[in-house]
Amino acid sequence: MMRPLRLVPGLLLLLLSRPAPAPASTVVTHLPGFDGPLPFYLETGYVGVEEDTGAELFYYFVESERSPGADPVLLWLTGGPRCSGFSGLAFEVGPVKYVLAPYDGGLPQLVYNPLSWTKMASIVFLDSPVCSGFSYARDPEGCDVGDYSSSLQVQRFLIKWFTDHPQYLSNPFYIGGDSYAGKVVPLIAQYISEGIEGRQQPVINLKGYLVGNPITDPKFDENFQVPAAHGFGIISDQIYEAAMQHCKGDYVNPVNQMCAEVLQTVNSLISEILDAHILYKKCVFSAPKPIHDAMARKNLLEESVELNEAPARPAIDCLTYGYYLSYFWMNNKMTRDALGIKQGTVSEWKRCKRELPYPYDMPSSIPYHINLTMRGYRALVYSGDHDLQVPQLSTQAWIRSLNFSIVNDWRAWHLNGQAAGFTIAYANNLTFATIKGGGHTAPEYQPEECFAMAQRWLANEPL
């Protein structure tokens, strides 16, 4: 296992022993606010994915800290859509996290995350779709992408990235993501699998994919919020019974006035709690939360804004305080210089860019789940069990709609002698798991349990 040494000659030797990074990439040995050299290999860079508009996707590559020559390579996408891949790196499964200290106008501090998934895999964190994070397009029209076009760009990115990094081509490759990314992950995997069958070069060693608290199909995702709210004790038996009676199972499109009224009551009660995690306090929240409402999407600005003002400041005991710190850290010149950001491309970094257009043009990802698993690719679907945005009930329901036979029935899975959640294994290498105490998204709330789950699944072991 190669680790960067604290002595400069050792660090130099380590970097010299690796293949030279691609021309548009930067090896990052130090980060502002992080004490000393990074104890892992970090590379950042740009990959062009569309010549006409000059669209380039920005990535952060962290090499496995265990056995990079043999460990899986994982592409990690963050939800939103249009949230930066850095969110996955700093708040979910990556090797750094912020010190949650009151912001005083200085540079926020970073520390090493010992529960990083880079202990078991090399991970590419990607700013996708284009114009998320530090990804950009010379022509502003290049930012206007949706489910299909952005997924094709990710496939293009991977072909080019692996061409520049051939030493990882033989490693098992997986695609992962959560929230809205969970919707496009199967589509991207489908494009990759079609490229493999068409003998596209280089041949990517795709083994499967994993999605957490995944947006999948509104017929399931949204319809199960009402029964989940009842199960969590947010709405009463009487309200739930009225909803069932008047809405006839459709809680998304009210079929009559009585249904509309009871849903208004339901939504009012849900608004009292944090739907990302029903046990946490409500805070200023800018998490990867999909925007389903058509009018809300229509009213969003269609141009990015110049650096103007910081996001609202949450209380320091809020989970979102780290998001707040990331805004100042990322918009600091020292940070941008360290990461190799091209000057003049992105004036203001935002964790999630709501103001850009995004057509939600793929109605459901279920056909891709069926196709991939039937072709032999492995799939892990997991849910934080306190998430009301995409309740585990909805995820279980669409998985059951696949009609796969059960291979290993519902049981607890354990960590340190305690139930860490529950799991069920289906035919065609499909595993579903809950994360006890997890929210939307699970690794942010229960990092230790998610680390154990990923470690076992990537090693082809039962949870």
UniProtKB/TrEMBL annotation:
<dbReference type="GO" id="GO:0016747">
    <property type="term" value="F:acyltransferase activity, transferring groups other than amino-acyl groups"/>
</dbReference>
<dbReference type="GO" id="GO:0006508">
    <property type="term" value="P:proteolysis"/>
</dbReference>
<keyword id="KW-0732">Signal</keyword>
<dbReference type="GO" id="GO:0004185">
    <property type="term" value="F:serine-type carboxypeptidase activity"/>
</dbReference>
<keyword id="KW-0325">Glycoprotein</keyword>
<keyword id="KW-0865">Zymogen</keyword>
<feature type="signal peptide">
    <location>
        <begin position="1"/>
        <end position="24"/>
    </location>
</feature>
<comment type="similarity">
    <text>Belongs to the peptidase S10 family.</text>
</comment>
<dbReference type="Pfam" id="PF00450">
    <property type="entry name" value="Peptidase_S10"/>
</dbReference>
<dbReference type="GO" id="GO:0019748">
    <property type="term" value="P:secondary metabolic process"/>
</dbReference>
<dbReference type="InterPro" id="IPR033124">
    <property type="entry name" value="Ser_caboxypep_his_AS"/>
</dbReference>
<dbReference type="InterPro" id="IPR029058">
    <property type="entry name" value="AB_hydrolase_fold"/>
</dbReference>
<protein>
    <recommendedName>
        <fullName>Carboxypeptidase</fullName>
    </recommendedName>
</protein>
<dbReference type="InterPro" id="IPR001563">
    <property type="entry name" value="Peptidase_S10"/>
</dbReference>
